[in-house]
Amino acid sequence: MTDSLRRLSPVVRLAPAKLNLTLAVVGRRDDGYHSLHSVFVPLTLADRLSLAPVSGHRDTLHVTGLDAGPPADNLVFSALAAARAAVGGGWPGGPAPAPALAARLDKQIPVAAGLAGGSSDAAATVDGALEAWGAELDDHARLAVAAHLGSDVPFFLAGGPALVEGRGEQVAPLHGLHGTPGVLLVTPDIAVSTPEVFAVFDAIRSHGDGAVRMSSGHLAEELRSGLTAANLVARAGVLASANDLLPATSLVVPALVPFKRALSRLLQRPIGLSGSGPTLWALYPSESEAAAGADVVRAAIGRGGLTAPGSAEPFVCATAIVGHSQQGSEP
Ligand code: C5P
C-alpha cells in the first residue's frame, strides 16, 4: 500500500430508506420523465455501507443481508465511477485518479420496493467516497453526480424530510416535523418496475387530477411550519390516497388491491403506497406502536388469516421517520 493510501481510513455510512407521504405527478417532461410534487421522508430502516481504500485499480463490492441482485449490476459501482470522474485529480494524492475502494453493503431495505434503497446506497457511496478520498465537491457538482445516478438520489444528499419537485433534482428541506412518527412497512415479495408503472400511468391518463397535488401542497406547508407526530397520523386517511401512481401500480400488480384492503381491515388504519410500490405503509404515533402493528400482521400471516401476493412471505418492518434534528448521527 502506498503512503497516500495508508493515510486514508475506511468510512461507514447509513443509507436510509425513504417513504413518499404524497406523490403527485404534475406533468410529463420532454425527456420522458415526469415532473413530481412529492413529500419524501427518510426512515430509520437503513442499509449500512463501508468503503475502504485498497491498492489496485478495481473497486469491489461485497453484499450481505437481503437479496440485492447481481453485485456487478449494483448502483454502488456506478456511483463510485461517477464520483471518481467528478473528482478527477482533485484529491490529496492527485493528479492520479482517486484510489479503488472496497465496498461492503449490508442490505436491510428490500429492492424494487418503492423505498429507494438502491438510490440511497448510491448517495451514501458518493458522500462516503469523497470522505474516504479526502476530496470535496461543491454542492452543484454533488447534485449533478447524484441526479445523473437516478431521480431519487438527490433527496438523500440533503438529509431529512423534503419537498421533492422536478424529476427529483429540486429538493427543499422541510424542517417542521416534531417527534418521531412510527411507520409499519409491508412489502409483498414482488419486484415492481418503476418505468413500467410510469408507462401504465401514461397509458391511462396524461397527468394526475389535481387532488393529490393539493394534498401534497398542504402537507408540505404543514411540514414547513410545524407538525407533530400525532397530527401527521391524523392525516393518514388523506395521505393514503395521495399517490397518483396508485391506479397504475394496481394495474401492474392487481393482487395488491385486495391485500391493501385486507391490511387496512386488519389494522383498522389507512394504508398508503410508497412511490411506485409495492411497499404499503401505515402511520403510528411511535415506533413501538408500529412494532405492535407488525406483530398483528405477522400473527395474521402465521395463522393463514392474511395472504400477501408474491412467492414468499412479505417483508414486515416497524421503523420511524427521521426528522432533520435527528440527522447526522453516524454509527
Ligand atoms: O431516474 P431513475 O432511473 O431512478 O428512474 C427510473 C424510471 O422511472 C425512469 O426511467 C422513468 O421511467 C421513471 N421516472 C419518471 N419520472 C421521474 C422519475 C422516474 O418517469 N420523475
Care to give the gist of this entry?
This protein is 37% helix and 25% strand. The protein has 331 residues and is α+β, with helices and mostly antiparallel strands. The chain binds cytidine-5'-monophosphate.
How would you portray this structure in words?
With about 325 residues, this protein is α+β, with helices and mostly antiparallel strands. The protein is about 35% helix and about 25% strand. It has helices spanning about 5, 75-85, 115-135, 140-150, 155-160, 195-205, 210-225, 230-235, 235-240, 245-250, 255-265, 285-300; strands at about 10-30, 35-55, 60-65, 100-105, 160-165, 170-175, 175-180, 180-185, 225-230, 270-275, 280-285, 315-320. The strands form 3 sheets. Strands 1, 2, 3, 4, 5 and 6 form a 6-stranded mixed sheet that branches. It has a 4-stranded antiparallel sheet with strand order 10-11-8-12. Strands 7-9 form a two-stranded parallel sheet. Helix 2 links the parallel strand 3 and strand 4 (about 100-105). Helix 2 runs parallel beside helix 3 (about 115-135) and helix 3 (about 115-135) runs antiparallel to helix 4. The model is unreliable at about 325-330 (pLDDT under 50). It binds cytidine-5'-monophosphate (C5P). Cytidine-5'-monophosphate binds near residues 34, 152, 167 and 168.
Write the SSE topology.
Elements: H1 3-6, E1 11-28, E2 34-53, E3 60-65, H2 75-87, E4 101-107, H3 117-133, H4 139-149, H5 153-158, E5 162-166, E6 170-173, E7 177-178, E8 182-187, H6 194-204, H7 211-225, E9 227-228, H8 229-234, H9 236-240, H10 246-252, H11 256-267, E10 272-273, E11 280-284, H12 287-302, E12 315-320
Parallel strand pairs: 3-4, 7-9
Antiparallel strand pairs: 1-2, 2-4, 2-5, 5-6, 8-11, 8-12, 10-11
Helix pairs in contact: 2-3, 2-4, 3-4, 6-10
The structure holds cytidine-5'-monophosphate (C5P).
Cytidine-5'-monophosphate binds at residues 33-34, 36, 150-152, 167-168, 194-195, 198.
